[in-house]
Amino acid sequence: MSGERPNLDLARAYTRAVGPTAIAVGAAIALQGLFLLPTVVAQYQPLSYGLVMMLFGTAAYARTESVMGRIAQWCVTLVFVAGGVWSLLQWVPLIWGPQHVGASGDLSLIALWLTAGPALFVPGLLAAVRPGWTPLIVVPALLSIAFAAMMGYGALYMLGLPNGAQLSSLEHAQLVGISGFSAIFLLIAVFRAVTMWRS
């Protein structure tokens, strides 16, 4: 039966290969996030980033028919739906609240939140309706999150905080670590994709 769906089987094998790497990288980043909790860098959610990496990595690796796979699937659904709800709620204060003046009627910012909401709802609903698709949904999300984190935390290290506050040596070291671990995950994911495709 599996021979009739070679591309799907290859994709599933890839998700199971990438999953443990995401879990390990997420654990390392979450540990760094714990060290950053008392600092101003905590507002950029490094701990949450690490935990999401671990959750999505578990969902990518676990078999969807197993108990762990089902738990991971519903957790992924909750994360996507919660993110979608939060994104949709952001446009209310931007249009009618005090932030409207600060945003200066920035339509691009409002459009970002309006599009981010549905964009997060779709994979969440797919994961809920089709549990078998969950690993195929979370891996692109992992790659996107890791790339954004690599660039974002790297920029924070290079450029500093927007308000001009100085970062401590510990904060600099942790930012390098988070950006570096994200880059390592991307490199491993790309390497595995290339090797599996060639084989």
Give structural notes.
The protein has 199 residues and is mainly alpha-helical. Helix content is 80%, strand content 0%. The mean pLDDT is 81. It is built from eight helices and no strands. The radius of gyration is 19 Å and the shape is globular. It has one domain.
Set out the fold topology.
Elements: H1 6-35, H2 46-61, H3 67-89, H4 91-96, H5 99-103, H6 107-129, H7 134-159, H8 169-198
Helix pairs in contact: 1-2, 1-7, 1-8, 2-3, 2-7, 3-6, 7-8
Based on CA inertia axes, which overall geometry fits?
globular
User: Structural class, please?
Assistant: mainly alpha
Query: Percentage of helical residues?
Result: over 70%
Unreliable segments (pLDDT under 50, ≥5 consecutive)?
A: none
Strand content: under 5%
Q: Give the end-to-end Cα distance, rounded to a whole number of Å.
A: 20 Å
What string gives the helices and strands in order?
HHHHHHHH
Mean pLDDT across the residues is 81
So how many helices? 8
- What's the β-strand tally? 0
Radius of gyration, in Å, reads 19 Å
User: How many distinct folded domains?
Assistant: 1
Describe the biggest sheet? Answer: none
In short:
This protein is mainly α and 199 residues long. It is built from eight helices and no strands. The longest helix is centred in the first third of the chain and has 30 residues, at 6-35.
Core attributes:
199 residues; 8 helices; mainly alpha; 0% strand; 80% helix
